[in-house]
Design a protein that fits this description.
The protein is α/β, with parallel strands linked by helices. The protein is 47% helix and 12% strand. The protein contains 18 helices and twelve strands. The strands form two sheets. A nine-stranded mixed β-sheet has the order 1-2-6-5-4-3-7-8-9, sandwiched between helices. The protein is globular.
Length: 367
């Protein structure tokens, strides 16, 4: 992203009343942020959500001064910036309507790894919660996932440290700008986390720390990931908001059950009770439910081969779904280099053999 494009995008985000959803509408209607800010009133009024008050705010010259200050800070601190249409922007987050227009990070991340897991939980964890979190990360380590969390007290920092202990990449999503550290006591963990991963945020360097920022942070934690694991949570708290975001984004949510009398199991039990999360008791549950065994790391695919005979083209589709998870017919055809009508026939055959199942939205997944 060149400096001029970044400068005008920063200016657009400084406009009062322009959040991520409105900004994306404006940016999709016009060529770029510079064009938005220089557009005529008549052209701007064609965009849904633009009214008289927003028009007035778009003409505020102070937005440019603030953008200049932020651009200088980004360059001084060596912050990496990703625009929501860039190739290095997290692919799963691109599918979230309210995903940030800009993401700030301490380094360029490789988000092409399909195995990205968020692990979150209460700040006041129990010894059992800590042990489960550590065992979970260790059990997933053979699949080399990226472990995402919020760098907060409790389960969050335990997940990050467990990732480091298992030499896994880990990403801390912050509820403030990258120049700050919160909580301050976690400053000692920053360098080791940066060695294997790093930090990202949607908040500019001059953003103040506000309570609602941490709720907004949680949608990024959920949006980045293939699945979110809630280790321990009370009925109210940040972890429950992360679970809600994950549900809204149609992502998998897993929760660790506990005794009904335990305060920090009540949130997890509630999620399971109302079918907003799947119950897990081990890393193997996550592996099985996400069908990671399909890559042939353990005996799952070997057992399938004994009982089901697949053609060469069916095997190609099976291997692709095992690696990529749920996919549409068009995606399967493109990835496997097969014509769509033939993929339809192959998928029907595989469904009859009990290998795959159709999902809503013409999506297919392995059984």
């Amino acid at each position: 992203m060149n400096e001029e494009k970044l400068f005008y995008t920063l200016a657009l985000q400084n406009v009062e009343g322009v959040g991520d959803v409105i900004a994306k509408r404006l940016l999709s209607h016009f060529k770029d942020a510079k064009t938005v800010l220089k557009a005529s009133t008549a052209d701007l009024m064609q965009v849904d959500g633009v009214g008289d008050r927003l028009l007035k705010n778009l003409r505020d010259k102070n937005i440019y001064q603030e953008a200049e200050m932020e651009l200088n800070a980004i360059n001084k601190l060596g912050i990496q910036v990703s625009f929501y249409t860039d190739d290095d922007y997290p692919s799963r987050l691109k599918h979230c309507d309210d995903g940030p227009v800009l993401l700030y990070s301490t380094r360029r991340f490789d988000w092409k790894n399909s195995k990205i897991i968020s692990i979150v939980g209460t700040r006041r964890h129990t010894s059992q919660g800590k042990e489960f979190c550590q065992a979970l990360v260790a059990g997933l380590a053979i699949y080399n996932p990226i472990i995402v969390s919020g760098f907060a007290f409790g389960i969050d920092i335990i997940a990050h440290k467990a990732a480091v202990d298992n030499q896994l990449r880990t990403v801390g999503v912050l509820g403030h700008g990258l120049q700050d550290v919160y909580p301050r006591s976690h400053y000692k963990y920053m360098e080791i986390i940066k060695e294997l991963g790093g930090f990202l945020s949607e908040f500019k360097t001059r953003s103040s720390m506000e309570r609602e920022n941490f709720i907004r942070r949680n949608r990024i934690v959920a949006g980045l990931s293939e699945a979110t694991v809630i280790v321990e949570s009370a009925q109210k708290g940040g972890s429950m908001s992360t679970a809600r975001f994950a549900n809204d984004y149609n992502r998998e949510v897993f929760a660790v059950p506990g005794r009904v009398t335990d305060k920090y199991s009540q949130g997890c039990n509630e999620l399971i009770k109302w079918q907003r999360a799947q119950l897990i008791t081990s890393a193997q549950d996550v592996i099985d439910m996400l069908q990671w065994d399909g890559k042939g790391v353990n005996q799952g695919s070997g057992q399938r081969a004994i009982f089901v005979e697949l053609s060469e083209e069916e095997q190609k589709i099976y291997d692709y779904l095992a690696f990529s998870g749920k996919r549409t017919m068009d995606e399967i055809a493109l990835a496997c280099q097969l014509v769509v009508y033939k993929v339809g026939v192959l998928l029907l055959s595989m469904e009859l053999k009990g290998v795959i199942r159709p999902m809503p939205g013409k999506v297919f997944e392995l059984i």
